[in-house]
């Protein structure tokens, strides 16, 4: 949804992508407001009638315009740094609907989170519990906390984005949770408000997600029997999207399974999706610089690169490539690697794609790039970061200007 050909040109909602390239240049991230809203509404309708909160995972796409849109729709937020908290606040998000996750919160971040009254800190170790208690004592506050518990479930996804197994760095061990909750209950500076888990990202089958919810609920029951009744259960994010030919179960099916597992419970149900809200709502638009036929492979060199979209280099991820000018049906095709100008062999955006006679100046769109695209971009090779545009119907809004080269070294000094 959000991107389709109209009169032979790929459009974001009603705006042709070649107009966007003309106005804002390339490389450029383009997002569809309607697609983001519609994905968010899928969560809302699946959870209707249930005391719940959708905390959008800011790391997937942290542009202020995206956060502001979701805040207006009523979303809460899942953050992993003081920087993300600052973004949520700058975008008009509600700290009281914000969960602070992550294994390495600094003292300054904990202090900021408590002062801004976040909904809860999701703790991942006993050392973190001591640190949070000490900061709360100093500030004369009670810190609302939950533990992220590692349910030891295989999310069956790429190993780099799988987080629910014992050997990953995330969460406290399932078998130790009761002991750690009991220790936390003895600390006057903390209020135990919840329990959570997140087993991995880009899951296409609901089974592991539902199993994890069941294990967390069983633990919440044991904690309640031991005298610690919690206000919320956070079952994480991780619902996958279609990049190529994956057939992820729909959001409703994932949530129905979990809701069945949690039926009749009194805690607020929290989910923290990122990719499934913004992933298919964005594309990376690039222009062909050169076409380079080779003896072993043919290359299309575009002006976007691994620094703009690192997912292919990092995870071997597959993003569909579409020509902005729709190829005529029956047009002859050849096989190309779509690569960027960065000096690394890993600088590819797509491999072995059938494209119809790409030429210098043509525009290509890397699809499904709305999540973990711009958010993971870098300035490698002193490349200014891409512009970002949010399309709403027939309007295209520049929501982040293209960086300038001067900005890249503005903080650097030559000594002496
Ligand atoms: N909650 C927690 C605690 C998380 O760590 C994450 C993602 C999410 C929620 C959101 O997961 P999602 O719904 O987006 O799957 N850079 C990788 C993905 C890393 C995900 C990290 N954690 C990629 O490009 O595939």
Question: What does the model show?
Answer:
- The protein has twelve helices and 21 strands.
- It has 416 residues and is an alpha/beta fold.
- It has two domains: 158 residues, Lyase, Ornithine Decarboxylase, Chain A, domain 1 (Beta Barrel), CATH 2.40.37; 212 residues, TIM Barrel.
- Strands 4, 14, 15, 16, 17, 18, 19, 20 and 21 form a nine-stranded mixed β-sheet that branches. Strands 5-6-7-8-9-11-12-13 form an eight-stranded parallel beta barrel, surrounded by six helices.
- β12, α9 and β13 form a beta-alpha-beta unit.
- The longest helix is centred in the middle third of the chain and has 19 residues.
- The chain binds ligand LLP.
- Ligand LLP binds next to α10 and α11.
How do you describe this structure in short?
With 416 residues, this protein is of the alpha/beta class. The chain has helices at 17-24, 33-47, 64-72, 82-90, 107-115, 126-139, 177-185, 207-225, 251-261, 275-278, 311-315, 405-408, and strands at residues 3-6, 9-12, 15-16, 28-32, 52-57, 76-79, 98-100, 120-123, 143-150, 172-173, 190-196, 232-234, 268-271, 282-292, 299-302, 321-323, 334-339, 348-355, 363-366, 387-392, 395-400. Helix content is 28%, strand content 25%.
